[in-house]
Amino acid sequence: MSNFEKQLEKVKTATGFIAALDQSGGSTPKALGLYGVTEDAWSNDDGMFDVVHQMRTRIITSPSFGGNRILGAILFENTMDREIEGQSTASYLWNVKNVAPFLKVDKGLADEENGAQVMNPMPGLPALLDKAKANGIFGTKMRSVIKQANAAGVKAIADQQFEVGKQIIAVGLIPIIEPEVDIHCPDKAEAENLLHVAIMEHLNSLGSDDLVMLKLTLPEQDNLYADCIAHPNVVRVVALSGGYSREEANDRLSRNNGMVASFSRALSEGLSAQQTEEEFDAMLDASIGAITAASST
Questions:
Q1: What secondary structure, in 3-state letters, does the chain show?
Q2: Segment 11-26, tens digit of pLDDT
Q3: Structural domain of residue 25, as residue ranges?
């Protein structure tokens, strides 16, 4: 089996969840602040990315972080371009930790229109996908956000996600399609119902060999996405924490059978630069354990 086939089998069938380690330039200062590192620790973007890579390296190299509970890890491009213990981050993840590497490929969000924020244009996507393939990346992730239960906005999000997803499939990578519904959306359940219908229409129009993953907000109606999970074109449906605390995210996740976590902030909650290695590993181990348990229902 090729690495890709081994990774596909793991992501599709193994127990565990996806670690989202892909905070980009805009969200990195907040992530570092929660980790106990303030903005006086760097003087420019390069310095900031050095600091965040130290944080991510600490998580990835921790004894608590491994393929027995982690299916995959989503990286920011800057992280893919760097090394951990002398090898590329993606190579280290797979060859040392048995964790499939994913790459965040979107370039942020456009301004809100019809209650939704589609993705900014991605003119550099073909080159980035080639680079990802050369780095041994298994799949990609791209995020857009639904703020209102507006049919036109939801359709625009779903159409764009699957259109770009097909470009990613065409180069031999697995796209994680992430049409997030904002947890503060005033009519969240209705927005999710609209999205569910749109996703199923797109899934049913895919070719038999076209494989995607879905990353979705934990829904108001438990098991709303059961038919997405069962769909033959879907490798896995993962859940974003979306601003819920880890406790609430895990509680909601445990009620959605077959859905597994892809948490970012909820994964790193409680980790601190000031912790000793023992304290850090213990906190990360407890976090990974709780998220794995919630992902196993």
A1: CCHHHHHHHHHHHCCCEEEEECCCCCCHHHHHHHCCCCHHHCCCHHHHHHHHHHHHHHHHHCCCCCCCCEEEEEECHHHHCCEECCEEHHHHHHHCCCCEEEEECCCCECCCECCEECECCCCCHHHHHHHHHHCCCCEEEEEEEECCCCHHHHHHHHHHHHHHHHHHHHCCCEEEEEEEECCCCCCHHHHHHHHHHHHHHHHHCCCCCCCEEEEEECCCCCCCCHHHHCCCCEEEEEEECCCCCHHHHHHHHHCCCCCEEEECHHHHCCCCCCCCHHHHHHHHHHHHHHHHHHCCC
A2: 999 999 999 999 776 7
A3: 3-294
